[in-house]
Amino acid sequence: MILGCLFSSLFLRCQTSTITSNNSIESKDIKQDKSNLKMNNTEFEVVKSEEEWKKQLGDFSYNVMREKGTERPYSSEYETLWDSGIYVCKGCGSELFHSETKFDAGCGWPSFYQSIKKDAILEILDKSHGMIRTEVVCKKCGGHLGHVFNDGYDQPTGLRYCINGASLGFVKKPK
Fold it and tell me: Which of 34, 59, 114, 127 sits at a 20 to 30 Å CA gap from 156?
């Protein structure tokens, strides 16, 4: 029972805030777009068939990135990685987050206070699961990364990008 309460607390911590930004898409824009990409109906530079995505990503990362799944908290190799380098999109290799913006949010997922550049990600209003959140996807391929919350108050931006490690790759900075 205690573990259930702890998991619920962690899950809600990463699920209950929302923000707005210049890089957001409002829900009316999502509904009007005619793209066949089932993730969020937005056109992206990198487009592959579902079979190609499954082959490239494997079952678990495919579920997270293409079907908006999530990984268990504290299960990602990147949650505790503190090496210097760049976190990239597992789907297309786009640079997403610099290790210097990573922080321990205590929520069990890799957390960052800003993306590597403003146009690296796309924020989309997410009203799923009875909550209002802001989903984060790779702007180049549309892969689901996680969500962004405005509860990173002790960070320079006040934001917490709560990202699934299954959506990421890491390029270590050479010494």
Answer: 127
